[in-house]
């Protein structure tokens, strides 16, 4: 039984403190996800809070089947879209998320996000969810409402495009 399953068992038995533990379990990764999709850090914080409010508002209707993480990402994605739409600010590039790691790792994250910018939106989202957020392919399919095979083929396509882009950058650096 995973920690998430244990928390949902506590929620079923009426332990409301488990809600806080559920937030703590996923807050950081949902914040990184929202920072990637929303241009302003304050707006990203709002998106995270709104995500959890939406989820907990309807938690009594949610039937836990071990897919809560994917469900949470789906709500976060929709919330980010809604906030950007309200702000009418879809043209700004997202800021580089702040990871609580060392400088070298942060530079790697910046390089990763820069490299992602060469991909079309649908492929970029899959690569970001897979390698930055470490979601499983099945979870990505649930978040994006895509069949597993589609996620697999788009990920393969994205990785080929990224490989080509990296080769071009290496070639340009050697000139």
Top keywords for this entry?
transcription, 175 residues, 74% helix, mainly alpha, 8 helices, Rna Polymerase Sigma Factor, Chain: A, Arc Repressor Mutant, subunit A
General form: elongated
Highest CATH level, the class of the largest domain = Mainly Alpha
Number of strands: 0
- Can you identify the CATH superfamily of the largest domain? RNA polymerase sigma factor, region 2, helix turn helix motif
Oligomer state equals single chain
CA radius of gyration is: 18 Å
Helicity range? over 70%
Structural class, from secondary structure content?
Answer: mainly alpha
Domain RNA polymerase sigma-70 region: 22-88
Pfam family, one: Sigma70_r2
Keywords: DNA-binding, Sigma factor, Transcription, Transcription regulation
Family: Belongs to the sigma-70 factor family. ECF subfamily.
Give an account of the 3D structure.
This protein has 2 domains: 1-98, Rna Polymerase Sigma Factor, Chain: A (Orthogonal Bundle), CATH 1.10.1740; 101-175, Orthogonal Bundle (Arc Repressor Mutant, subunit A). It has 8 helices and no strands. It has 175 residues and is mainly alpha-helical. It is 74% helix and 0% strand. Belongs to the sigma-70 factor family. ECF subfamily.
Question: Summarize this, please?
Answer:
This protein has 175 residues and is an all-alpha fold. The chain contains eight helices and no strands.
Which helices and strands occur, and which strands form pairs?
Layout: H1 3-12, H2 17-37, H3 41-57, H4 68-87, H5 103-116, H6 121-132, H7 137-144, H8 148-174
Helix pairs in contact: 1-2, 2-3, 2-4, 3-4, 4-7, 6-8, 7-8
């Amino acid at each position: 039984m995973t920690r998430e399953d244990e928390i949902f068992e506590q929620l079923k038995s009426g332990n409301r403190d488990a809600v806080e533990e559920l937030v703590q379990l996923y807050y950081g990764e949902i914040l990184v996800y929202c920072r990637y999709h929303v241009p302003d850090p304050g707006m990203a914080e709002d998106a995270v809070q709104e995500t959890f409010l939406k989820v907990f508002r309807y938690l009594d209707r949610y039937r836990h089947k071990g897919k809560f993480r994917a469900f949470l990402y789906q709500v976060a994605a929709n919330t980010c879209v809604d906030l950007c739409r309200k702000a009418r600010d879809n043209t700004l590039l997202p800021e580089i998320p702040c990871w609580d790691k060392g400088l070298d790792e942060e530079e790697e994250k910046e390089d990763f996000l820069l490299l992602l910018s060469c991909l079309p939106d649908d492929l970029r989202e899959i690569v970001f969810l897979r390698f930055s957020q470490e979601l499983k392919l099945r979870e990505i399919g649930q978040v994006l409402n895509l069949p597993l095979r589609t996620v697999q083929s788009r990920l393969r396509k994205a990785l080929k495009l990224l490989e080509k882009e990296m080769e071009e950058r290496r070639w340009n650096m050697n000139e």
